Amino acid sequence: MITDSEKLHEECGVFGVFGSETTDVSSTVYYGLFALQHRGQEGCGIAINDEGVITSYKDIGLVNDVFTHDVLKKLGEGNMAIGHVRYGTTGSNDRNNVQPIVVNHVKGRMALAHNGNLVNSADLREKLELEGSIFHTTSDTEVISYAITKERINCDSIEEAVNRAMYKIDGAYSLVVMSPAKLIAARDPRGFRPLCYGKTEDGRYIVASESCALDAVSAKFIRDIDPGEIVVFNDEGITSIRDHCGTADSALCIFEYIYFARPDSRVDGVNVHQARIRAGELLAKAHPVDADIVIGVPDSGLDAAVGYARASGIPYGIGFIKNKYIGRTFISPGQESREDKVKIKLNPISEVVKGKRIVMIDDSIVRGTTSARIVRLVREAGAKEVHVRISAPPFVSPCYYGVDIDSKDKLIACKHTIPEIAEIIGADSLGYLSRGDVTKLADGGSCTGFCCACFDGEYPTSIPKGNGKNKFEQKIDKTKKKSKTKDDTNEEQQ
After folding, report:
1. Are residues 367 and 449 in the same domain?
2. CATH number reported for the structural domain that contains residue 314 in this entry
3. Is 451 a catalytic residue?
4. 8 Å CB contact between 35 and 79
């Protein structure tokens, strides 16, 4: 039995605040990170700038566990700050890899937080190491910080250093960078990851991965930061640097709409809730079925279920109760008894599904193990038929831009046909959103192109060496393989 995670790991989330006066910015960042907690649950950190003095704290754990009242009090006040919630797709899960990263260099200090994944990180890291750089983490965020610092030594401003560094780094990145006097936000030229900014009533500027974090701190949304744009906040106002805008085709990760972003967020001009409803409507047209009720798998399947019900005319029902007091079953690596955790997390309402033909909407199928368990739960609750509809196309390729899909070996759609997958998960029928329909989710938005590489294998960048796997983890894996005993091998084969 496969006991590894079925669901996808989230991205990371970044947050920044800039004001002209000293205030309790640590609390502002705390609430902002709390709103972005869905994007990363492994670790979090905050860096505070008080008149050029940068103080930081970070650790493994959730925001409310790491940042207690005493910790926030020790961080103190400042006029600007940045924060980060992490799920690490590159680099091991330890405190050293938690962000923000704070760098001391000859021209001052810098703090940086990053959402995304570089495709040329290994090459840059090797080059920097050969030049004498010493790395303290295994994350590509430190590579970005070195690239910026190296440029900063030879130019007049931190924003120019960021601008120059963007010519050398490639891949997905949304950055917040803090110097003693400035807050800088930057988005890669393809716009893989979302980034926006707003303003509070007291005049502070807020930068965040998603607009829901602006709402959490009572900031009014101003606009999304464009792909390739650098936005600088300082006492003189706001400056936009657009040297990298239009240098590459837009490639926003379509899975932001399907799963990653919060439903109340707007990403590049499109409300995520409405995008998911549209996915359900498209599914109903493409994969109709005679049924009695439509239910969604919490949380990201709920909106699509509403859309399916609306378009099909089949009543919508609440089929599951989700235990809100258990962490996501797929967040912590190496968990055992995952089947029991699925039962604890989700409980079907038998009075809703018993004796009925069910359409069950979910956002994705990766390996199929969790989907099979959920279908079984619904059948055990008395469902007569279970027809599964997925609001994304089948996963057929790894992702190199920050989503935890690193091997075709782990993707059920690479090994089985759709009818075979339906049989494996125990569904009476199975239908996916088509590749042609998936980009329609963002109709009316400002984005002109999307990355759908995990669905079609068409990558907007070159593929990184070593298939994008972290070289440190590869070494660990090889060591484990060499040290396996005969008993270990027999146990795995079982």
Report:
1. yes
2. 3.40.50.2020
3. no
4. no
Residues in the chain, total: 494
User: What DSSP character marks residue 252?
Assistant: E
Say if residue 245 is in the same domain as residue 392.
no
Provide φ and ψ at 317, rounded to 5°.
Answer: -140, 155
Q: What radius of gyration, in Å, describes the C-alpha atoms of the chain?
A: 23
The single-letter code of the amino acid at 332 is S
Q: How confident is the model at residue 183 (pLDDT cuts 50, 70, 90)?
A: very high
Q: What are phi and psi of 9, to 5 degrees?
A: -80, 150
Q: Confidence band (pLDDT; 50, 70, 90) for 417?
A: very high
What pLDDT score does 340 carry?
Answer: 61
Q: DSSP class of residue 478?
A: H
Q: What is the per-residue pLDDT across 83-105, written as a single tens digit (0 to 9) for each?
A: 999 985 544 556 878 999 999 88
Q: Give the whole-angstrom CA distance, residue 430 versus residue 178.
A: 48
Q: Is residue 442 part of a domain?
A: yes
Tokens 């610092």 correspond to 149
Looking at this protein, which amino acid is placed at residue 273?
H
Provide the residue type at 341 as one letter.
K
Residues 132 and 182 in one domain: yes
pLDDT tens, residue by residue, 138-148: 788 999 999 99
Largest Cα–Cα separation, the chain: 72
Give start and end residues of each alpha helix (H) in 39-183.
63-66, 69-75, 121-130, 140-152, 158-165
- Backbone torsions φ then ψ of 146, nearest 5 degrees: -65, -40
Other residues' Cβ atoms within 10 Å of the Cβ of residue 304: 32
Q: Is 77 exposed, middle or buried (0-12, 13-18, 19+ CB in 10 A)?
A: middle
Selecting among 12, 399, 451, 452, the annotated active-site residue is 12
Q: Domain residues for 112?
A: 13-251
| Residue located via tokens 């923000």 | 100
Q: Does some domain include residue 467?
A: no
Same domain, 310 and 439: yes
The SS3 call for residue 346 is strand
Evaluate whether 428 touches 356 at the Cβ level (below 8 Å): no
Question: In which residue are the tokens 């990760």 written?
Answer: 253
180 and 280 assigned to the same domain: no
Q: How many domains does the chain have?
A: 2
pLDDT for 14-44, tens place per residue?
Answer: 999 999 999 999 999 999 999 999 999 999 9
